[in-house]
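=== RUN LOG ===
request id: a7f3
mode: sequence -> structure
chains: 1
length: 206
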Amino acid sequence: MKQTIQHIIFDIGNVLFKYNPTHIIECLIPKSQSKQFHLDHLFKSNYWQQMDRGDITLETVQKKLQETYNLSSIETDEIKTLVNHFTDHLILDNDMKTLFKTLSQTFNIYILSNFQSKPFKQLLKNHPFINQAKGIVVSADVMMKKPEIGIYHFLLSQYRILPHECIFIDDMLDNINTAKKLLINTILFKSYKQTIKDLQEFNISI
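=== RESULT ===
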């Protein structure tokens, strides 16, 4: 295959960092009596998706959950703690970090991630290597999220890049399928080793 790839687009969660809500909860509120509640009604809820898309604020989520479930002030404060500090307990995949940095020496690197604005800024502070990306699109900042096709259009137009010159690495099949509709080359992330193997299909050897 002729080498035409110029741009590599990375997802964040479960690609560069392992995202495990149960682990996050245990780290941040280990003595809480409401761990399962927060897992079910915060992390796994539509509220989390709405915050990722920028449609709703943390304060509104706190208020809605407090009113719906008659939460105590402690439980309401726990919600704030979890949202504001969950990025501190994302688990960095050091192999993928090395891959990210290695590829950035040859290709234009971009980030396309479903993420809340304030937590993403904290992630950048904790892991400045991400700033090596030539461009970053965070869902909450543009009020669109994967797999909506609009956020892909936004990335391509914002940075004036051609889809057939890109590889998009993401762990979610729905997100991959939308990229394919735009003729973006894709790698469905499963592991570091699988990603290395898949990159070889594009004549990219690490």
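=== NOTES ===
The chain is about 50% helix and 15% strand.
The beta strands are 7-10, 17-18, 91-92, 108-113, 135-138, 166-170, 185-188.
=== END ===
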